[in-house]
Amino acid sequence: AQKITQTQPGMFVQEKEAVTLDCTYDTSDPSYGLFWYKQPSSGEMIFLIYQGSYDQQNATEGRYSLNFQKARKSANLVISASQLGDSAMYFCAMREDGNNRLAFGKGNQVVVIP
Amino acid sequence: NAGVTQTPKFQVLKTGQSMTLQCAQDMNHNSMYWYRQDPGMGLRLIYYSASEGTTDKGEVPNGYNVSRLNKREFSLRLESAAPSQTSVYFCASSERVRRDPSQPQHFGDGTRLSIL
User: Fold this and answer.
1) Of A68, B7, B26, B39, which sits most exposed with the smallest number of CB within 10 A?
2) Interatomic CA distance for residues B74 and A46, integer angstroms
């Protein structure tokens, strides 16, 4: 069974506007962590933001924030004030408690247009 | 700061050839990982090493072997390459989860492998 679901088709967003990328997950473990990575066309994987299942507040990191809805099992990434350099694939990943492994979703493609 | 270094960056093999992908990290991380990335599939874990001296299978281990040579180095070997193993391979490392679960995995730049 797929643990991380990212189903949005490719998204186009106007420069300076915000974009929300959906991620839903499936786990029965009460303790887990959620990660978002960015993969630009050059191919490297860049860590953006982390949310722990017990964190009381939504994670924020500069222009990145997480809309974490634990009951819905969703951890949507919000990118505010989009820039041309934000054009990339974005991957959501989950680590379950005590488990070194990350399960990745299939990614969301974002294209920022001027 | 080198971080995670993978070699080679590109490689073309013929079916049946063998190949070892090298990975080294300089962050003193305990855990290391090998993933493959195929179009539309995200990253899938091949093997990982939670600490020096241990290795475990991931989601797609068939056709691969690994060696954790020391704390810094974790290699991936294809003994008899098949076209289905054409992919982009990523190595990653992280701190041990129980020490700090918020620490992300740090990735190398990837190896693009084509098998004809």
Assistant:
1) B39
2) 20
A2: tokens are: 């797929």
B102–A33 C-beta distance less than 8 A: yes
Looking at the complex, report in whole angstroms how far the Cα of residue B70 sits from the nearest Cα belonging to chain A. 18
Across the interface, whether the CB atoms of B101 and A33 are under 8 A apart is answered yes
Our CA-based measurement puts residue B44 at a distance from the nearest CA of chain A, in whole angstroms, of 7
**DSSP symbols for A25-81:** E----SSEEEEEEEE-TT---EEEEEEETT-SS--EETTEEEEEETTTTEEEEEE-S
Question: For residue A35, what are its two tokens?
Answer: 């990660």
C-alpha closest to that of A37 among B95, B92, B39: B92
CB B17 within 8 A of CB B70: no
A87-96 tens-digit pLDDT: 999 999 999 8
* Binary contact (A104, B42; C-beta < 8 A): yes
- Are A42 and A59 in contact by the 8 Å Cβ rule? The answer is no
